[in-house]
Amino acid sequence: MLYDINLRIEYDYDFPVSGGRHMVRVLPRSIAGRQRLIAGSVGIRPQPVERTGVIDFFENQATLILFRNAHDRLEIDMQARVQVDATNDQPDFSPQIGELSREIAACWSLAPASPHHFTGHSPRLPDCSEISDYALSVAAPGMTVREIASALCTRIHSDFTYDVDATTVDTTPQEAFRLKRGVCQDFVHVMIVALRSLGIPAGYVSGFLRTIPPAGKERLEGADAMHAWVRLWCGPTNGWVELDPTNDMPAGTDHIVVGYGRDYADVAPVIGIVKSYGQQQTKQAVDVVPVRQPA
Amino acid sequence: MTSKAAEAERIAGNPLLEGLMTYAPLPGIADEMVSPDGSIRPAWQKLLSALGRMDETELANRFARADRYLRDAGVFYRAYGKDAGGERAWPLSHIPVVIDQAEWENLSRGLIQRVELLEMIAADIYGPARLVSEGLLPAQLIGTNPEYLRPVVGVAPAGGHFLHFCSFEVGRGPDGNWWVLSDRTEAPSGAGFALENRVATARAFSDVYAETHVHRLAGFFGAFRDALLAGRQFEDDRIAVLSPGPANETYFEHAYIARYLGFMLLEGEDLTVVNGRVMVRTVAGLKHVSVLWRRLDASFADPLELNHQSQLGTPGIVEALRAGSVRIVNALGSGILETRALLAFTPTISRHLTGEDLQLPSIATWWCGQQAERDHVAANIENMVIGPAYSTRPFFDDNGRSVLGSTLRENAKLPIADWLSNDGARLVGQEAVTLSTTPAYVDGRLVPRPMSLRVFAARTRDGWQIMPGGFARISSGSDVSAITMQEGGSAADVWIVSDRPVDRTSLLPADEAFTRNLPGSLPSRAADNLFWLGRYIERAEGALRILRAWHGRFAEYADPDQPLLKDVSDYLKQLDVDTAEPVPSTLLASIDSAVFSASNIRDRFSPDGWLALADLAKTARRFHDSIQPGDDATRAMTVLLRKLAGFAGLVHENMYRFTGWRFLSVGRYLERGLHMTRLLRHLSGEDAPDGALDMLLEIGDSVMTHRRRYNVATARLTVTDLLALDPLNPRSVLYQLNEIKTEIEQLPNAYSNGQMSPFYREAMRLHAGLAVMTPEGMTPEAYRHFETELEKLSDILGETYLS
């Protein structure tokens, strides 16, 4: 599939902020055999006095910007054309939980895709006994890691209600778990904590969803803003597998990856440090349109 | 009497000697003073024979000398926990730990080998990670380690090194050999305290110290300072100690080290990053900083790329690191080397990387994330301490998170082996060691107390150097676990004794060319604190003077509704000062605010100045609870005014006349001008009650001058002339404006491109406006005008220099 993606993020500040430094992660990445960024640009208004592009630890593209002058509005516009290739569904070669820990330990690597970065806790995701009990109730003896993950994905999708007003960007997984409500970020955080509590390495994927579904299919939840889903490590043979608990489906050609991280904090679209007194309003608009290709 | 009997009598009369005679090391535990065969170690003999000649009184006097020094120097640490926030007197154990030079050299060689190995490990973890891919270091130990800072992976440190200043916690085992208990690589503290312990102990034993060949510490610090100076990119780059601020446990030391080495003391908000370079905000604009000695935990250094919750850091620091423009001592991320579980792997890594065994063993450690190690720990649980694998502190200093294996059997819910296999990756077992004892003076005698030693290593231009001395922590009981200060432990100086005279370098090299360095630019935050210190001090003085005059009259009239008293009470009420309280809370608040401002810039004060201010605050607080209105209050105000003048005098006599001084002065003049303007408006009007003019003169300390100058009874115009317009009266409004103008001329950027700065222009205008006034013209409206203008001046100063 070939997509044209437009993202617009707007911040309105009640009082002008005197300056600010931000890290922006909105540009789709290229992933060998999966997706390719053909062209992409990030426009920022007002014009920042400094602007630097960096590749972060997990190999996401980030833009660092600095403002020195007062402004009461910040606009970020991202445009990209991305080629997404259909991945062949692999058969399930994942081990059972007991075997997985040995396979993790046998992985002598700190490369960005090493499972070792995705076990234990991460800045936004501490241990949570309620969620680990929930995970244990899903994992039955004899199930493979892949099977457990799919079961969890389905379970969360049916137990949780998609509700944009129930949570905020700072809601903890425990709070979301108790509410059984939230948006993609909450679904994903709960599922990551659940997987990790079982010893399965799991991380956060930020990205985009195709806005208008193909004919005859339902529109997916989360398509009108940046989306998030889960990736988990299923052993050396299957490697990383991506599941979308908000829509209870594997991430496929409708999912375009922007960033990989341990949790939201690693891939937040905009991290900003501003000195301000008042509140701010944020708006996000996304358009992911398939490009008609000559036959 | 036989000589033996005489000796016995001498001993009997001297509890210390008795203590020496009965000093017995604990069985099976090494002692610093007494060797295993029961003889006194040679290095201790001079000190001991000197101690033997002192009686209890002399000893008490000597210890008091040391304690007085520490108090006067303002040495404190901050207690956490139940009495959080309190500053505690420094708990010095007066008897130093004495170590023979030859033994020390051995230890030093081992530590240098160790710190060089740690540097290689850091470079590998944040570089190619070969130790992981070759199986020498479990990936899990790094990947799940909170000290592993991903944003700096692959960023080579400016200057090429991760480590520049480290410390080691070492202890002596029962066999007499030294062990490394933990490595401190993040932001090691204690070096400044070691210096202060040294000065204090040398005060107590000045004679012994002089005749014993004790190695000096200054050379070590000098060599490190030179190395940092050499690390600058350009000669006028700044070097700073980066502190988390006055709330930190060891803030005293940050200020002390900065002052001792002549570096700036900064906090995260003093810094900003411009085009990849770290800059400090000063009153003269942004200035480059190319070396930061960091006392702030790494993850807090940059809220943008590291811990997003940090309020202490500087956004953009990681960007500056990528640009290679700043050397951070030690590099961000170095803290991972402190991980306790790493101790299990360093011996193998040493052989692998250098082909050498560690000369100095670490405390035996097993990481329970591996089957064989886990089994070993389970089988030997009685002789183990079990603790968190990722802890960065030694087992006896981690707030009780480590437990003796022997106590586990009784309390454990699960069988030990199950527990270890469930949670193994988060646990380490360490051999339960006993530490050597050293004599501490307790209740008139010397008793053996467990100790651990903190030893410091600095990278100098000639390679690593070990500080010849250190910081001994001494337990308050016979148990190692009571070694931390939070648990009542104390600290002792460490004497490394040579059998030959030692080099007595002081920090100032005599043979280098003499240059006179002007102090570096003043950070805006420091200027802000100095300015407000000046204002609060003067605000307190103004209130004190009015209150003294008020209570003097109240003692006479005994009626608060007497017209003058009532009038002045009403005036004070506008300033939130309530005359019903003899020592009003608002006054205490001004003094506390002054103390707070001063505490933020402690490195710029002499300890004397700080003590005088602390004394003022303490006295005011005491008076607040005890003073009666009238005469009693008048006397109390006089005492407080005298103490305040004492502080002002110390500052006036001792503070270097540079930018910082000017901000302090401008603060004082501005507040005094405001105080006098308001007071004149209120008390010199046509309708002011009887006696108001005399009271004004008294408050303005100008009674005698008025008598001499005017030769008439007090009249509205003469008082106005003297207190508002006389350029020679140090209490007049015009005098304040004159001084403000003079100070501003000397501030940075008073002129830019040949033009006066707005601040300077405003001060000139205001001065000229008042200078041309006549006493007749000083109407209430005129006073109000000048009051508003003075307040505006304060705002412009803030905008120009302090933000």
Describe the structure in your own words.
The complex is a heterodimer of chains A (295) and B (803). Chain A is an alpha+beta fold and 295 residues long. Chain A is built from 7 helices and 15 strands. Chain A folds into 2 domains: 2-85 and 269-290, Immunoglobulin-like (Sandwich); 97-266, C8orf32 fold (Roll), CATH 3.10.620.30. In chain A, the strands form 4 sheets. Chain A has a 5-stranded antiparallel beta sheet with strand order 12-11-10-9-13. The longest helix of chain A is centred in the middle third of the chain and has 15 residues, at 145-159. Chain B starts with a helix and ends with a helix. In chain B, strand 21 and strand 22 (755-756) form a beta hairpin. Chain B is built from 28 helices and 22 strands. The longest helix of chain B is centred in the C-terminal third of the chain and has 34 residues, at 524-557. The interface between A and B is medium-sized, with 26 and 28 residues.
Number of domains of chain A: 2
Summed over residues and divided by their number, the pLDDT of chain B gives a mean of 89
Percent helix range of chain B: 40-55%
Shape of chain A: globular
Strand order of the largest sheet of chain A: 12-11-10-9-13
Over the alpha carbons, how many angstroms does the gyration radius of chain A reach? 19 Å
Please provide the ordered H/E string of secondary-structure elements of chain A.
EEEEEEHHHEHEHEEHEEEHEE
